[in-house]
């Protein structure tokens, strides 16, 4: 049986008395709803106040995180730059070892592999964990670079001691470019520009204007001056230690057989003689009668 709460309203005039019946269950439900509403509202207000108080702190943390990211990226760029420089030093070291006839077989094992700091981040890590991970990686790479620098220093010391004892070898090694210009063909097999067939190119081609100076890449003696059908006017220098250099397609020869020349001395001028598609220098290096890639000896 439903229970009701009767409400009577007695007007001040002579009107009839107004009677209302309100279910007790409805009153109880309304009271509970009002109580719950007050609790929820209180929590919302409290949470809002707390969040509002944290906003300045969050802004400061956000700015700090952004600054740290910029700093870390700059640090990463510096590490990549150092790695690039180290790679160039390794190449320079290798060329010097070829010139000095020192062992290069263990080059691959002399240094450990390198790679730029990874910027990939685990999306499930917090900002602090991501930062710590990246900092850890950079410290590891810096340690690796330090170790490589120490090994490179040791290698250069060894080279210095060896080359000081054999300074004549260094002076007699064709280590500079014989002419300015553009490298148009490299050493090795290529398609012939005349027949279209695959053939061995025994030197490198450097293109420029007719009359471009040709210089001796090392100290030596002129052992041949002449003309060949395919490469036109030629000069051959002997540098000792079994090393010879040949210069072809010349327009003008400025030296004679038996003449001694020094590194950097002008010996001829670039031309277009012989079988040629345009003015260029055919530059060839041979060691003990076997042609080799001239770029192995070029230090600049």
Write the layout of secondary structure elements.
Elements: E1 4-9, E2 18-23, H1 24-100, H2 107-110, H3 127-165, H4 167-171, E3 182-185, E4 188-191, E5 198-201, E6 204-207, E7 213-215, E8 220-228, E9 232-240, E10 243-253, E11 260-261, E12 266-270, E13 280-287, E14 290-292
Antiparallel strand pairs: 1-2, 3-6, 4-5, 6-13, 7-12, 8-9, 8-11, 9-10, 10-12, 10-13, 13-14
Helix pairs in contact: 1-3
Brief digest:
This protein has 300 residues and is an alpha+beta fold. It is built from 4 helices and 14 strands.
How does this structure look, described?
It is a single chain. The protein is α+β, with helices and mostly antiparallel strands and 300 residues long. The chain folds into three domains: 4-64; 70-171; 182-296, Glucose Permease (Domain IIA) (Distorted Sandwich). The protein contains four helices and 14 strands. It has helices spanning 24-100, 107-110, 127-165, 167-171; strands at 4-9, 18-23, 182-185, 188-191, 198-201, 204-207, 213-215, 220-228, 232-240, 243-253, 260-261, 266-270, 280-287, 290-292. The strands form three sheets. Strands 3, 6, 7, 8, 9, 10, 11, 12, 13 and 14 form a ten-stranded antiparallel beta sheet that branches. It has a two-stranded antiparallel sheet with strand order 1-2. Strands 4-5 form a two-stranded antiparallel sheet. The chain is rod-shaped. The protein starts with a strand and ends in an 8-residue tail after the last strand. The model is unreliable at 105-119 (pLDDT under 50).
């Amino acid at each position: 049986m439903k229970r009701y709460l009767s409400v009577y309203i007695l007007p001040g005039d002579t009107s009839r008395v107004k009677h209302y019946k309100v279910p007790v269950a409805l009153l109880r439900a309304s009271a509970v709803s009002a109580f719950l509403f007050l609790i929820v509202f209180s929590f919302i207000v409290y949470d809002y106040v707390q969040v509002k108080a944290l906003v300045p702190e969050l802004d400061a943390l956000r700015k700090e995180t952004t600054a740290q990211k910029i700093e870390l990226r700059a640090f990463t760029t510096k590490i990549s730059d150092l790695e690039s420089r180290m790679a160039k030093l390794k190449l320079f070291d290798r060329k010097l070892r070829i010139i000095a006839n020192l062992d290069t077989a263990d080059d691959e094992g002399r240094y450990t592999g390198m790679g730029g700091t990874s910027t990939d981040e685990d999306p499930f890590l917090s900002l602090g964990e991501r930062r710590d991970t990246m900092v850890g990686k950079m410290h590891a790479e810096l340690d690796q670079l330090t170790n490589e620098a120490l090994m490179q220093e040791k290698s250069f010391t060894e080279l210095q001691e060896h080359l000081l004892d054999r300074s004549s070898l260094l002076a007699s090694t064709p280590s500079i470019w014989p002419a300015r210009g553009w490298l148009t063909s490299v050493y090795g097999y290529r398609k012939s520009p005349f027949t279209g067939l695959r053939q061995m190119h025994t030197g490198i081609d450097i293109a420029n204007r007719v009359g471009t100076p040709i210089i001796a890449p090392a100290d030596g003696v002129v052992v041949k001056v002449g003309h060949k059908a395919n490469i036109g006017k030629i000069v051959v220098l002997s540098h000792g230690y079994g090393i010879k250099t040949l210069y072809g397609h010349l327009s003008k020869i400025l030296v004679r057989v038996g003449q001694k020349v020094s590194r950097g001395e002008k010996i001829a001028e670039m031309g277009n003689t012989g079988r040629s598609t345009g003015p260029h220098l055919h530059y060839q290096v041979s060691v003990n009668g076997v042609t080799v890639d001239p770029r192995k000896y070029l230090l600049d």
